[in-house]
Amino acid sequence: MSKSAVPVNLADKLAQFSELWSQKKVAVINDYEVKLAKLQGEFVWHTHDDTDELFLVISGRLTIQLRDVDVALAPGELFVVPRGVEHCPVAEEETAILLFEPAGTLNTGDTGGSMTRTAEILD
Fold it and tell me: How far apart are alpha carbons 38 and 47 in whole angstroms?
């Protein structure tokens, strides 16, 4: 059986790591990566000029701060930040999310800095 015929169990993948704000790649579809991350606290304000960014909350709660409004997400809810829109994710409690974005997208977008991480592959 080919590896592509094996389903990805998100709970199992989330159990493999504990680091916060560190994206883990769990699948690839065309030129896009499906990533998991655990968040708590406030990230950095940043923009992705060339791509939209999809956030899907698996557990916990996430607020996506935009300059003119906050978007509150509960488990099972998703939000797409349009390309070029400055945003800042905030999680008051530990929150697990799924991200869907083009391969190579930096988590800190145009901001860079000490919170920049390259997505690691989870087997």
Answer: 20
pLDDT value at position 1?
40
State how far the Cα of 73 lies from the Cα of 50, in Å rounded to an integer. Answer: 24
pLDDT higher than threshold 60 for residue 102: yes
Q: What percent helix, strand, coil does the chain show, rounded to 5? A: 5, 45, 45
What's domain 20-102's architecture? Sandwich (2.60)
% of the chain exceeding 90 in pLDDT: 77
Number of CB atoms found within 10 A of residue 91's CB? 23
CA–CA separation, 30 vs 78, rounded Å? 21
Among 111, 75, 108, 105, smallest CA distance to 93 is for: 75
The pTM of the full predicted model, rounded to 2 decimals, is: 0.89
Q: Which helix (H) or strand (E) holds 13?
A: helix 10-14
